[in-house]
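Box 3.1 A note on notation
Throughout this textbook, protein chains are presented in two layers. The first layer is the amino acid sequence; the second is a token string describing backbone geometry. Keep the layers aligned when reading.
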Amino acid sequence: MIVLLSARPGTLESTMTEDLSPAERYAAARRRAAEQATALASFREMYDFGLDPFQIEACQALEAGKGVLVAAPTGSGKTIVGEFAVHLALQQGKKCFYTTPIKALSNQKYADLCRRYGTEKVGLLTGDNSVNSDAPVVVMTTEVLRNMLYAGSQTLLGLGYVVMDEVHYLSDRFRGAVWEEVIIHLPDSVTLISLSATVSNAEEFGDWLDTVRGDTEVIVSEHRPVPLFQHVLAGRRMYDLFEEGEGRKRAVNPDLTRMARMEASRPSYQDRRRGRSMRDADRERERRQRSRVWTPSRPEVIERLDAEGLLPAITFIFSRAACEAAVQQCLYAGLRLNDEEAREQVRSLVEERTASIPAEDLHVLGYYEWLEGLERGIAAHHAGMLPTFKEVVEELFVRGLVKAVFATETLALGINMPARSVVLEKLVKWNGEQHADITPGEFTQLTGRAGRRGIDVEGHAVVLWQRGMNPEHLAGLAGTRTYPLRSSFKPSYNMAVNLVEQFGRHRSRELLETSFAQFQADKSVVGISRQVQRNEEGLEGYKASMTCHLGDFEEYARLRRELKDRENEIARQGAAQRRAEAAVALEKLKPGDVIHVPTGKYAGLALVLDPGLPAGRSNGHRGFEHHDGPRPLVLTAVPKSFNPRSPQSRRDLASALRTKAGHIPAERHRKRRSQAADDREIARLRTALRAHPCHGCNDREDHARWAERYHRLLRDTSQLERRIEGRTNTIARTFDRIVALLTEMDYLRADEVTEHGKRLARLYGELDLLASECLREGVWEGLAPAELAACVSALVFESRVADDAMAPKLPSGKAKAALGEMVRIWGRLDALEEEFRITQTEGVGQREPDLGFAWAAYMWASGKGLDEVLREAEMPAGDFVRWCKQVIDVLGQIAAAAPQGSSVVKNARKAVDLLLRGVVAYSSVG
């Protein structure tokens, strides 16, 4: 079918239309008219470029009233679908919430939508910003929407569409549960638009969305609008990772394979020291090889990319300090990527964006060094930077005024900052526990930034050559375009009380069983269930084959099995007893003892040279001496000069042994009476077996073989059923344990949420129950605002250095006592969680409060200067601001949850005002 959107005279379309019959022309005109009347037609006119097929397909599904899941590569333009949902909401007089995983992305999307629809129609809600929250279109972080749903906010009235950008975040082990909570609890009347990176199980995720949200269209596109080329930079040369060629699986560049092989065969320093006589020809060959292959320095990489026309570029380095060091290295090398005009533009924009920051703070923040790098077109980008500084870097990069950015992987998480090239220094990163290879999913996410749509014809991903690099491994990373979406959903204390308050325990349990986590767990047992079904069919067949006309052969087989099991048990006991007796006898041996070996290759007399016992041990216990008593015959004629290592000495001794002891007759081994002969249970089973009717069946042994097969298959089937039981209802069982603990602590009474529970329902965070208990026990009563800020910091802060041996500095007085009380309460909760089998390994339990930020929060809330606070905290400005904002967020929750009349309410609000100053108060929305 040919769809013609326009047919102007003299165009190809009009010529094709003229070739159609009158009926076909009429049908084409009807289709054009219908398409022009759609919301999609008016939406397309807002853009100066055409939409891709996957975008059109998703928008058409949305306009037809369906939910959509769009999975497409980074930079492919899937946010167009989200913007169409905004367009539909405004056209229909409904609200649209656009959710993002991080505040920076929310700020960016807010600015984009304001430019398109105007500030009066667009609002912003993040943890620390609220702008025009009653607007028909509101951009927010996913946590804000989750909190709205639990609170039953009036803002939800009239909500028609929710866009969940970067929905693959639900795999995040710390925050992923929030996405599932929102998807499950959104009203049925809301249409959900899920935008995801390319994942390999999009259809599975779509099936789940279809189950919990209704009709959902899954649109998957693996096409990159800007093709990506993979390279390896080694020394002065840039190699293509893959050989050119089409119509077959791409092969790794043989030059890289050869280079890796030569490097692997090159002798190491130790090898060269061992082989000092290396020939001159070998030495010259190695020198030439080394001159071609080395890891280029960071300035060399940027210069090479600049010479190749591959800037702007983002170099991913998995270390904040290394990002800053990279900028300094480029400055010291004299790199200048901007001309004078660009330098002036940079200085003008930077001064405008930082005008509100006091001069003394700019000096502390390293402003002048940062500005020098920006003027040269070079910058760092990482979470340790002040948010304002990061946003300036992003804006300058998009404008083309910064051409080389050294960034940590956080830049790849959704920020719209595409480049022509992406450079990866290494394929290994620290994951918090160890140095591990980056995954195909991480590689795809990082390199997905390469290639700017509408600007670049092609994008380039460059990996720096490192000693020991395996080109095949790199090709595997580059060739695996997708990664699976795995749920990280776990119920929490806050979630439990909110659910019970809204739906009751039974309905809450049913809701949790609709989670994606349970959906995946249930799907994983489908194969096992099928095997169980096949086994059950086999059991029916075996049962028929062992049927006996004389009686119940299943009962007879059970008696035979019990008899066999009892005989085996008696045999094992006898063998164990004999081994124990032998061990006791052997432990009594000493060098010089003569023993008789009754059977085996070495049967006959033997002289003990070494009993084999560890020094100072006898009978398996340290400190006991050998017992005196009856011992085997001892040959006393062992000469003092005997050497047990000498074969000749051993032969001479053996000859003497035979001469002096050979006449002694060996004691005959008498077979003991079997214990089974005297066992009453065996006698009873044998009698019952002989008396059974089936014992006289002519086909008894044939039936017995079928019965044995039946028993083995029944045992295997039972094991499979236990595996299924372990995987099904896992979320609901965890919920049951949480509810039991909350009931024990009087947060819940059956389906009733107590006053304590209602307080817990307003506290969101990893340590929600600890915060609630502190309010309950009045731990924070009477604290000054700065002291309260120090205590609350322990609920949110997590040190980047695990198991730090240095005890953190703490404020003295009431704050120190309150922090100690918080740790004591946590210890009580930890013991209670262990009693109810709630563990942190399941992602549910309360971690120990971290006191590492208490002193910094106290100083800042006490009015100390930025220079002093950062010096004391030994923390980058960006981290300091981020933790302060998280403390402010929790202080706001505590102010809302604390009992009315409590001093905590007033002091929490005062603490927010004290923290929200200087660098912490600089709004990231301009």
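The CA atoms of residues 78 and 85 lie 12 Å apart. DSSP finds 37 helices and 23 strands in the chain.
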